[in-house]
Amino acid sequence: MIKSLYVKNFALVEEISIRFAPGLNIITGETGAGKTIIVTALAQLCGERSSADFVRKGASKAIIEAEIEFNNQPELLNKLKQSDIDLFDGNTLIIRKEITARGTSRTFINDTPVSLSTLSEISLFLIDIHGQHQHQRLLHPENHIIYLDAFGKLDRQVEQFKNLLNQFKAKIKERDELKEQQLKSTQLQDMYRFQIEELTKAELYPEELDDLKAEFKKLNNVEIIHQLAASIADLLYDGEVNAAGLIVESENKLEKLISFDEQFADFQDSLNNARIAVEELGRFLLEYVADLEFDPQRLEQIQERIHHLEFLLKKYQKVSVQDLIDYLDEIKNYTADIDAFAERIEQLEEQIAHLKKQLEEHGKQLSELRKAIARKFEKQISELLQKLGMPNARFRIRVGLNQKKEGAFLFDGFTVAANDRGFDQVTFEFNSNAGEDFKPLHKVASGGEISRIMLSLKSLLADIDEVPSMIFDEIDSGISGKVAQIVGLRMSQLSKTHQVLCVTHLPQIAAFATQHFKVTKNIEDNRTSVDIKPLDSKERIHEIASLLGGQKIAQQTIENARHLIEEAEDLKIN
Predict the structure, then answer these.
(1) Contact, 489 vs 452, CB < 8 A?
(2) Where are the alpha helices (DSSP H) in 202-295?
(3) Which residues lie closer than 8 Å to 400 by C-beta, 6 or more apart?
(4) Cα–Cα distance measured from residue 265 to residue 338, given in angstroms and rounded to the nearest whole number
(5) Dihedral in degrees, nearest 10, Cα atoms 375, 378, 379, 383
(6) Cα(217)–Cα(183) distance, integer angstroms
(7) Angle at 550 between CA 548 and CA 553, to 5 degrees
(8) Is the Cα dihedral 356, 358, 362, 364 positive or negative?
(9) Is the dihedral of CA 311, 316, 318, 322 positive or negative?
(10) Which of 187, 349, 396, 450 lies most in the core, judged by the most C-beta atoms within 10 Å?
């Protein structure tokens, strides 16, 4: 429940601090006094978007902070853990929002910064705010299925259907994309097959072009190579005077020199190695020259092969033969994929058909559950409406099919479309007068009737709802007198299981308060400010009398107010 609320520099509020009680907290005040500012401030802590207009004139920022005691709901605890929000001081959360004069805002839960979306998700477990805008929600038939599912606790079944539908849509998308790829690929298939044939026939290997260019260079310069090799062979080994012979002569003389001076012995091995190297190179050159011959036919073959490879490189816009080989592997894989398209599409069609069957079965089960739940729901709503001063009121829920000619699913012989909640269209129908026909709720209900229907819905859903605090802002619109007293009693009963905050202008409802607050608007130094304070028993009687009788309060009005409170207490007991 909401234990306390602190508001500073928010709208017309300079600074207020409120401690709420368990049970029914009533907030009253004159028209225009700023009662709804309190609800607006709490709505900010539930994830509503901020505006610079919320910051009091002259202030740099507005501050809203609430201390909220929560129930140990596993989903809430898990969400807090996922958001890295530390828990301290038992089951208590401190939610704080700061709004700057520039319109930016920061939000914290237990001193941990959180986003607005995270705040919204967490606040759903803590506070349920109902104001005039929710009357509008009730008047939109697309929201009726949400109320029915909440009453029937169908969240798990709805989530299962939604997951199946998401899988179905994903498979449809994948199949359609594959079909599109298949069409494009088929158009390119002939070209790719020609390229595969051309590149495969070329018998490519990575180093071929470099090797061919080296061989072409050698064959194209045979005469020069022959002359140079023969000349080197003569100089080193085969000429009348050659390096090998000179080294042999040097070895002989070095041997004699060593006999006179041992220090030259260190050079004997070096000279011997030099002779061996010169002789090896000389013999190799002689053999090389002997085997060297000009082959014009081979030269022409090499030239043609080089030209062909360079043509392929230019044609396919590649830098190397390895790039050509990689491209060949790529298009081979692509054409293999083309051949596999039909098989993959067929597999997807089977999966789609299976998911479609599951959805049709699950959707039918959901529809049957809703029809059974609807009978129970409409009976309880009708009973509550009769208790709320509408003796002839009848509430009916029509569960029909979302029939569409282009729908993807079959249901009892009808073609239907699906949304995240199944195949059903749920419509609330209402009849407030005996003998009249049922008509859609949004076409026949008055403002006062809508208020009571919404209170009935909230009362029923509250019995299965773990949200600890419920806030009603001007839900009493369009009602008065005895009906208002019945509404007040119902709120009092609701406050036994939930903390209830109610902004009202009706004394019959205010009389049921566990804790009564009064909002006042003050003007000081040409500045307007809003204040709120809890009322003691005497002040409370005076405030209810004010609601009953206006500005001038007669003693009889005071007595009427006291009697109204006593009557409310008796009704609570009985």
Answers:
(1) no
(2) 208-219, 222-233, 243-260, 268-291
(3) 424, 425, 426, 427
(4) 78
(5) 180
(6) 49
(7) 85
(8) positive
(9) negative
(10) 450
Closest CA relative to residue 97, chosen from 40, 20, 27: 40
Strand partners, 289: none
- Convert 463-511 into a string of H (helix), E (strand) and C (coil): CCCCCCEEEEECCCCCCCHHHHHHHHHHHHHHCCCCEEEEECCCHHHHC
In this structure, what token pair is assigned to residue 22? Answer: 């368990």
Phi and psi torsions of 314, nearest 5°: -70, -40
**Can you state the percent helix, strand and coil of the chain, rounding each to 5?**
60, 20, 25
Which residue carries 């080193």 as its tokens?
236
* Tokens of residue 155, six digits: 């969240």
| Contact call for residues 472 and 500 (beta carbons, < 8 A) | yes
SS3 439: strand
Backbone angles phi, psi at 240, to 5 degrees: -60, -45
For 495, the token pair is: 């406050």
Structure tokens at 214: 């080296």
**Cα gap 35→504, rounded to integer Å:** 9
400-407 long-range Cβ contacts below 8 angstroms, 24+ apart: 400/424, 400/425, 400/426, 400/427, 401/367, 401/425
What's the DSSP call for residue 21? Answer: -
3-state class (DSSP) for residue 529:
strand
* Spatial contact of 452 and 110, defined as CB atoms under 8 Å apart: no
The pLDDT tens digits along the chain (574 residues) read: 999 999 999 998 999 999 999 999 999 988 777 888 888 999 999 988 899 999 998 899 999 999 999 877 788 888 999 999 988 777 899 999 999 999 899 999 999 999 999 998 898 888 888 765 555 567 778 889 988 998 999 999 999 999 999 999 999 999 999 888 888 777 777 788 899 999 999 999 899 899 999 888 888 888 888 888 888 888 988 888 888 889 888 889 888 988 888 888 888 899 999 989 998 998 888 888 887 788 888 889 989 999 999 999 999 999 999 999 999 998 888 777 676 788 889 999 999 999 999 999 999 999 999 999 999 999 999 988 888 878 888 889 999 999 998 888 998 889 999 999 999 999 999 888 877 788 888 777 666 677 778 788 878 887 676 788 888 886 777 677 788 888 899 899 889 888 999 999 899 999 999 999 999 988 887 888 889 999 999 999 999 999 887 667 888 889 999 999 999 999 888 7
SS3 115: coil
- Measured between alpha carbons, how far is 125 from 111 in angstroms, rounded to an integer? 19
**Is domain 1-126+471-535 classified as CATH 3.40.50.300?**
yes
Quick one: DSSP state of residue 318? -
| Strand ranges of the sheet holding 92-100, from the earlier edge strand across to the other edge | 112-114, 105-109, 92-100, 61-69, 2-10, 13-19, 527-534, 515-524, 24-29, 499-503, 469-473, 127-130
Please report which helix (H) or strand (E) contains residue 50, including its range.
Answer: none
